[in-house]
Write a structure and sequence with these properties.
The structure holds two protein chains of two kinds. By secondary structure, chain A is mostly helical. Chain A folds into two domains: about 30 residues; about 150 residues, Four Helix Bundle (Hemerythrin (Met), subunit A), CATH 1.20.120. Helix content of chain A is about 75%, strand content about 0%. Chain A is built from seven helices and no strands. Chain A is elongated and about 80 Å long. Chain B is of the alpha+beta class. Chain B has a single domain, classed as Winged helix-like DNA-binding domain superfamily/Winged helix DNA-binding domain (Arc Repressor Mutant, subunit A, Orthogonal Bundle). Chain B contains four helices and three strands. In chain B, strands 1-3-2 form a three-stranded antiparallel β-sheet. In chain B, strand 2 and strand 3 form a beta hairpin. The longest helix of chain B is centred in the last third of the chain and has 25 residues. Chain B is globular and about 55 Å long. Chain B starts with 9 loop residues before the first helix and ends with a helix. The relative contact order of chain B is 0.17. The model of chain B has no long low-confidence stretch (mean pLDDT about 85). The chains are: A mainly alpha, B alpha+beta. Chains A and B meet through helix 2, helix 3 and helix 7 of A and helix 3 and strand 3 of B.
Chain lengths: ~220, ~100
């Protein structure tokens, strides 16, 4: 039972100290009641993944929002540092200029909307001890979209600086690249959290049948 | 009684058991069974994931102890957990009164 559960917990992404603690508790349980029926190890591991997904989903959403806030500050700083906007056609490549503008304009708006909706939802659900699988799925998708859009925005900022390198004062170009680089670590950290969470395969939500809260607030949008 | 009849009520039930004093997972299951007169014979694995979630939510705290030569994780109620339990009790009484009023 213990070895099978160890494998199954690993399969749903629960490893390290959390897994060792679960195994120690189950070992103690079996020592207290040798004939205990703890059920299928796969189902038990899935229940742990299910239950632990709630708090993690909220913290990842807030981390995503925090990273996007830094990207937004980077964007504002770079735009306010430019003394005079150069003509779009004056850069090294009109295609690069168009791509940079699209990346910045569209990326920033999508990141703002997805990030804000995700954070708002996490805020509204702050009192819930457990979230339904669908709620966690919505938060994950919004985080993924927001992070991708944030990365696109940063790429657009850098493309802009490269394209207008000769047209802008050197210090502005360097500042633009440097400020954009500041946004990379928090964005990468938030993306890493998201990727780690994706390993926690979210089961059918069967556990919710026994433990879901009855509050209607969790069903409210956004 | 397992599954659907307990829908939405496992958390306050677990909190109520832990409110009596520090307790480990197996004892929670036994207490639920005993205090419900055998009605809440939950699948034994069900309670551990719920205990972990309640701890993550700050409603329970836990620590390792050694009992009979074995490491044992013991859970206790936090102040936040106490407030949640009180709220759960009020909600349940209100709900039970309403159901009784309709069914009677």
């Amino acid at each position: 039972m213990i070895e099978a559960l160890r494998r199954e917990l690993g399969a749903v992404g629960i490893r390290g100290r959390r897994r060792e603690r679960i195994l120690a508790e189950i070992t103690d349980h079996l020592a207290s009641s040798p004939n205990a029926d703890l059920g299928d190890p796969r189902r038990l591991a899935a229940q742990f993944a299910d239950e632990l997904a709630t708090g993690a989903a909220r913290s990842r959403t807030l981390a995503t929002f925090g990273a996007l806030s830094i990207v937004a500050c980077a964007l504002v700083a770079t735009q306010t540092a430019i003394p005079t906007y150069p003509d779009v056609t004056s850069g090294s490549s009109p295609v690069l200029a168009a791509a940079a503008l699209i990346f910045v304009v569209v990326g920033a708006q999508v990141a703002f909307v997805a990030g804000s909706l995700g954070a708002l939802r996490a805020f509204r659900l702050r009192g819930e001890v457990s979230l339904a699988g669908a709620e966690v799925g919505v938060l994950r998708r919004r985080n993924a979209v927001a992070l991708a859009a944030g990365a696109t925005t940063l790429a657009g900022i850098v493309l802009y600086a490269i394209n207008f390198w000769g047209e802008l004062p050197a210090w502005v170009s360097l500042l633009t690249v440097a400020v954009a680089a500041v946004g990379v670590p928090p964005l990468a950290a938030a993306a890493l959290m998201q990727l780690r969470a994706a390993r926690w395969s979210y089961p059918s939500g069967a556990t919710r049948a026994a433990s879901a809260p009855t509050s209607d607030r969790s069903r409210a949008r956004p | 009684m397992v599954g659907d009849p307990l829908k939405g009520h496992l958390d306050p039930l677990v909190l109520a058991v832990v409110a009596d004093g520090p307790v480990h997972g197996y004892a929670v299951i036994e207490a639920l069974k005993r205090r419900s007169g055998g009605a809440f014979a939950l699948p034994e694995g069900t309670v551990y994931p719920a205990l972990h979630r309640l701890e993550r939510a700050g409603l329970l705290a836990s620590a390792w102890t050694v009992a009979e030569g074995r490491r044992r994780r013991v859970y206790r109620l936090t102040a936040k957990g106490r407030r949640r339990l009180d709220a759960g009790r009020r909600e349940w009484r209100s709900f039970a009164r309403a159901v009784e009023a309709v069914l009677a």
